[in-house]
Amino acid sequence: xxYFPLLMNIDxxxxxxxxxxxxxxxxxxxxLPTNAQVTVISPAVTEKLQHxxxxxxxxxxxxxFQPADLDDATLIFAVTDEEEVNxxxxxxxxxxxxxxxxxxxxxxxxxxxxVVRRGxxxxxxxxxxxxxxxxxxxxxxxEEQFGVHYAQYISFLKEARQRILQVFTxxxxxxxxxxxxxxxxxxxxxxxxKQNCEAWLQQRLGEKK
Length: 209
Fold this sequence. Notes:
By secondary structure, the protein is of the alpha/beta class.
């Protein structure tokens, strides 16, 4: 199967996770950085999931799955260890709802890649289910290669780009946008010297005025 990579805005959309075990916890944790409205359907949940529920980050329906639980859901995860329940979820899911079965024994509209988040900078990696171990290994490599300073770096680039676009057009705009990728800026950010980046930008803007 050839999956189509997609970054999806699910803010304030309903996401249903049927199951309350380890895999359900993983799905919840992947969804936490978003503003999705996450509902877990399961008679029982893990201790970690209970923590997220107590914090108000997730809604828990302490019950067995029923088709009506999927009403208005945009994304659906069937992550129980009972094939019969996962089959029931698949049967109840509408054609316009995106379904992911963790057991991969039926309909799988999408899969979750491994994600490295650095603010607005998002890196994803997947082997399309062929080797979860390699996916985890590459994710670890990316986390080391792209450290936490990338969050501030990307934030600076975003602001700098907006300031440049407000003032310049044509070749001057293109030149300044290209200069934003000066490796020195990334090095300063890694060293915690954000003020040098701001001074660099002010100087460039001043030179072009």
